[in-house]
Amino acid sequence: MQRTFSAFAKNDYAKYPFLKAAIKHIQTLDLKIQDLIDPDNASILERAQQRLEEAILDSIVSLDLKHVDIEIVSFPVAVMLAIATKDSFIKKRYALAEANRAYEELLLEPREKIIQLAENFEWKIAATHDSGLPYEFTVSFVDYLRNTTHLRETQWKLVNRMLKTGTVYLRMDDVTRLLKEEVRRHIEQRLDTEELPVLPAKMIEIAEKMKKLVEETIGKTEREGFPRTVTQTAFPPCIQSLYQAFSTGKHLSHIGRFTLTAFLASIGMPTESIIDLFKSFSDYSERMTRYQVEHIAGEKGSRTRYVPPKCETLKTHGVCVNPDELCQRIYHPLTYYRRKLQR
Ligand code: SF4
After folding, report:
1. What are the boundaries of each domain within the chain?
2. What is the pLDDT of residues 281-323, one digit of tens each?
3. Cα(13) to centroid of ligand 1, in Å?
4. How far is CA 10 from each of CA 22, 47, 98, rounded to the nearest angstrom?
5. 249 lines ligand 1 (CB under 6 A)
6. Does ligand 1 come within 6 angstroms of the Cβ of 333?
């Protein structure tokens, strides 16, 4: 077999299954559609279904690096299932949820890997070596413009950027945000088709189930994802702890504040109620708090509603406290909340 050099390892394929190298890897497996209903491959179809469920319910797909092979293959299967639903809401939500997941991983990558990932999308990107400048990258303004079309905050306006000979100077967090946009659009484009091979009945059944799930959960609440009423008893332990600390004005780290705000906004707590919570802080500023909460809730700026970080990230930052039995079976605090409500 001819070996081709790839800058990516198998774990990268699992983290970023939309990469060209990941697609090539999957092609070498020579898996046929009919193979997916083979009981030996049941876990692939199960994981693909789970990807869609997580996208519909939580707007973020979890990452399971313990089962890398299943994780890689389940992505194109989930794409097929999403196309089979013929439901534009599911398709958009799935693309966003995969992009949200990729974004969390991008935040942890070194500069070299970020460049390789951007080059996968044909970006003209380079590392800057001018230590006098607070930038890590230069990106061609064509790539920059393409990925800022939907970002409405003034910081993304080209006039607010340092531009030199057709390249824009960017920091790491700018580039990861733009890559998230690229991933979302890339997956949306993959989903924007009606053409599918003939799928086995079991896969059609799963697609129908996903549509029902949207009707039962999203449709009822204007596609917001969660019931209007906030159920505090369903909060995961980490959020309970942050909420208690928050309500009594105890100091919270930046990630603690972000996690709680994004969590409460995601489960439908009105922005005004979240802002009220901040009032107990000694450093409370109405203007700053409103700005931050409204941006996290997606009511201002890029209109992207942020989701809290996944459990793995929260563990790294010491935000995960007293995990219980349900915590052993989920990857994300929103999944915990959803499961608890279902119970
Ligand atoms: S496992 Fe996840 S949901 Fe449970 S406490 Fe830790 S971070 Fe929260």
Report:
1. 10-105+186-221, 109-182, 232-342
2. 666 677 888 888 888 887 776 666 788 999 999 999 999 999 9
3. 26
4. 8, 17, 18
5. no
6. yes
